[in-house]
UniProtKB/TrEMBL annotation:
This is Glutaredoxin-like protein. Keywords: Electron transport, Transport. Pfam families: Glrx-like. It comes from the Eukaryota. The keyword Cytoplasm does not apply. Belongs to the glutaredoxin family. InterPro entries: Glutaredoxin-like, Glutaredoxin-like_YDR286C, Thioredoxin-like_sf.
Length: 140
């Protein structure tokens, strides 16, 4: 008998001198293939977990842009309405009264607050929770 250490287990390979070396090769080949299959399966499982983690990590958090100006009571209400969803997006506020944001002032003027999700118009004046929920699901 020959003892072979394999995956921290002792495997017994029967060996008879009169059967020749061919039997030994077949048994070694079987062990090698089963080991190779295990390695492939474990590798695929590990890689699928890594790919899943990378996908989740690389997903960008949606960006909700709030176009506002001071004073704006509707904007304050909208910010309060967004609080339950804050963990699901990154909020960027754009003050349209500033000179560098003149384009947005010309576009929206008195129709604030206006919301864009990832650069696309979403809603204005009040927070529509159902629409926000739906679009956040689509963005993630």
């Amino acid at each position: 008998m020959i003892y072979v250490k394999f995956n921290n287990h002792k495997r017994i390979i029967s060996y008879s001198w009169w059967k020749g070396h061919g039997e030994m090769k077949k048994k070694k080949k079987k062990n090698f293939l089963s080991c190779f299959r295990r390695v492939i399966i474990i590798t695929v499982m590990l890689l699928s977990g890594v790919v899943r983690a990378v996908r989740q990590h690389c997903r960008r958090t949606p960006v909700l842009t709030l176009f506002t100006k001071e004073p704006c009571p509707l904007c304050d209400e909208a910010k309060a309405a967004l609080e339950p969803y804050r963990h699901r997006f990154e909020l960027q506020e754009v003050d349209i009264s500033r000179p560098e944001n003149r384009v947005w002032l010309d576009r929206y003027g008195q129709h604030i607050p206006v919301f864009h999700l990832n650069g696309q118009f979403l809603m204005q004046h009040r927070v529509n929770a159902a629409l926000l929920e739906k679009r956040l699901e689509e963005a993630q």
